[in-house]
UniProtKB/TrEMBL annotation:
This is Glycoside hydrolase family 19 protein. Pfam families: Glyco_hydro_19. PANTHER family: FAMILY PROTEIN, PUTATIVE-RELATED, GLYCOSYL HYDROLASE FAMILY 19 DOMAIN-CONTAINING PROTEIN HI_1415. Residues 112-154 form the Glycoside hydrolase family 19 catalytic domain. It comes from Sedimentitalea arenosa. Residues 1-22 form the signal peptide. GO terms for biological process: cell wall macromolecule catabolic process; chitin catabolic process. Gene3D superfamilies: 1.10.530.10. It comes from the Bacteria. Keywords: Hydrolase, Signal. One of its GO terms (molecular function) is chitinase activity.
Length: 266
């Protein structure tokens, strides 16, 4: 199987898949040098990026918040709920407030919050990070921040982040080697938000790369289709087998045919 099929399996459409794959091809040697050098690591990178970017549709942070959204997510940056109404629906003004005076950004008047807002598949954010990853990758991201949203740079930044970010003594790529999607997710998200979809996308990518469906992918697909396999732990236990049997009875197919049906469930 191939990188192309893995990206297509996780993409929102053939158009987004084509752009993401072309970008991967253009930097394939650099990705391997960073450490994306086995199928578990490739699947983790593709799956996590697919989740974070709405399946490769989004490469810019959406800061078009309502007043209620601002108060829910960024309340520490506002004096009171009433103040958020002065910012609602104004992405540049919002970025310059909520990202001011941190991550090496200047104050609101500097424009750094908007200039260094989230870009890329995993949303590189803040002047400090644009400097660090620009230096690391030999790109002047400080003076050309939109470069971070180009698909080739999206892959390189995400891969570099996974190679240098550590959780509990291991890099995220080393956690990918252990097939521990929870730890990879914590390193990217800070928690486990969206874990079920991250497991699903990573499993789909790995299946496409190796030609076989992992137990974790079966579990995620079954859960998505409404058949409870128990925890998504990669272990083929009685509850997962029962969920497979229930799905087979419901759809009237088994094996690879059932797998394809489950993959088509939205």
């Amino acid at each position: 199987m191939s990188i192309q099929s893995a990206i297509l399996a996780c993409a929102s459409s053939s158009v987004t898949a084509s752009a993401a794959f072309a970008a991967w091809q253009s930097v394939a040697d650099r990705l391997e040098a960073i450490g994306i050098d086995n199928d578990l690591r490739r699947a983790a990178l593709i799956g996590q990026c697919a989740h974070e970017s709405a399946r490769f549709r989004t490469r810019f942070e959406n800061l078009n918040y309502s007043a209620a959204g601002l108060w829910k997510i960024f309340r520490s940056h506002f004096a009171n709920e009433a103040e958020t109404r002065q910012f609602a629906g104004q992405p540049e003004k919002i970025a310059n407030r909520v990202y001011a005076d941190r991550m090496d950004n200047g104050g609101p008047a500097s424009g750094d919050g908007w200039r260094y807002r989230g870009r890329g598949y995993i949303q590189l954010t803040g002047k400090y990070n644009y400097r660090i990853y620009g230096d690391l990758l030999g790109e002047d991201l400080l003076n050309n921040p939109d470069r971070a949203a180009d698909p080739d740079m999206c892959w390189l930044i995400a891969a570099s982040y996974m190679a240098r970010t550590r959780r509990s003594g291991r890099t995220l790529l080393e956690w990918a080697d252990a097939d521990d999607i929870v730890m990879v997710t914590k390193g990217i998200n800070g928690g486990i938000h969206g874990l079920a979809d991250r497991e699903l996308q990573t499993g789909k990518a790995l299946s496409a790369l190796t030609g076989t469906a992992s137990t974790a992918e079966w579990q995620a697909l079954l859960l998505n289709a409404g058949f409870n396999p128990g925890p998504i732990d990669g272990l083929m236990g009685a509850k997962t087998r029962a969920a497979q049997e229930a799905a087979a009875a419901h759809f009237g197919v088994q094996g690879e045919a059932l797998l394809q049906v489950l993959r088509d469930v939205e």
